Protein 1
Amino acid sequence: MYEPGEVRLIAQNVDDIMEIFLDDAKVAECRWAGTGCGAGWKGVLKDRHKVRFKLTNVPYTGFCMTQPCGKWSADMLVMVEDKKIWSNGVFGRENDAGVKYDVTLTCDFTKGLCIE
C-alpha cells in the first residue's frame, strides 16, 4: 500500500551512471559495478515539480570478444502511488564517454502527468 500522494522516481538496469534530480537537487545516484544498478527516491509531493534523469557512460577498458565493447542502458519510471505516469528505456552499444541520455520532465503530481 502506498501513502496518498506518494511519488517514486526509479531507475533500473543502469549501465553506467544514473543521476536523478528533483527540482535541480540530486536525490539519487547509482554506478554500475558488474551488474546493472538501480536508483530511486520516494516521498509525498503535490503540484508541479521538475524531474531529471541523467545517464552517463564510462568507457569499458577490459578485454572483449566483440566490437564495440561498451554499452549503456537504463529503464526509468515516475510513479504516483501505484500508477505509472511516465516511463522510458534507453540502450546503446558504443564505448564513448559522456552523457548518453538527459531528460528533464515537468510533472504535475496532483494531476498525475509528466511532459518532456
Protein 2
Amino acid sequence: MSMPHIRYEVAMMLAEVGCELAEAEHRLATGAARDRVAAAGAFVLLKRQKALIEARLAEIDAHPAATETFLAWFKEELFNFKVRLEGGFGHP
C-alpha cells in the first residue's frame, strides 16, 4: 500500500469520526436523559479517537520517507521469507 493511499484512508477515518462526533454532540444537546448519557460516553471516546487519528496523520505528514523505507524493508523481508519457505518445502 502506497503512502498517499494510507494517508487518504487515515483522512477518511478522521472525516468519519468528525461526523460521528457531530452526531454525538447533537444527541447530547437534544436527546432524552438516557440518550444524553450514552451520547456523553460516545462523545468522550470519539474525542480521544479523533485526537489519535490527527496525531497519526501528522506523523504520516512529518515522516513520509521513513514510512516508505519501512514499507520497502517489509516487502523485502516478506519476499525473503517466501523464498525460504519455498526452499524448505521444495526439497525432501
